């Protein structure tokens, strides 16, 4: 697939079908993503893929916690500031209004998708050592983007989501991730459920005006 096409197809998939992916292909995608750059070639990342019975059990417990409104306790919240700048806060506010407009106040579609972990048949959990400089967070983001673009090139849909890492103790329970690793982010993988309203093609959040994020200095 042409790179421009791959990049254009990168969209959050909020509901997946039950169709399986060749697990060897997932491994090959992650192996290829290892070519991503990192500070001083530190390559701080690790990837854990969960599926099948283990994921079903994790999904069930995760849903119970969400429905009970148990507060999230992400690993990164203990490592990094969770305060947002005014600029970022305004963008998130606009996103919320956009969702409400296009779904005609049916935000429960998004809530249901979140608590069911988007029905993703595979989830990749990405970690870095808890003892890491902030550069490693940047490196992890590059690694994650590489994984997603490579997956899309193979016709696989993706969903990077904060909600997937809300309860790290549950994740460790089913993946065996060590306590000295910070579970930084997760990516749902699978094939998009084309019939799901929450995946409607008209729902593409707006981007900040280019001149607000770009400046050329000579």
From TrEMBL:
Its keywords, alphabetically, are: Oxidoreductase
According to the record, the segments passing through the membrane are: none
What's one GO MF term for it?
oxidoreductase activity
The superkingdom of the source organism is Bacteria
Q: Which residues form the Nitroreductase domain?
A: 11-191
PANTHER family per the UniProt record, alphabetical: NAD(P)H NITROREDUCTASE YDGI-RELATED, NADH DEHYDROGENASE_NAD(P)H NITROREDUCTASE XCC3605-RELATED
Q: Which family does it belong to?
A: Belongs to the nitroreductase family.
Protein name in UniProt: Nitroreductase
Tell me the organism: Lactobacillus psittaci DSM 15354
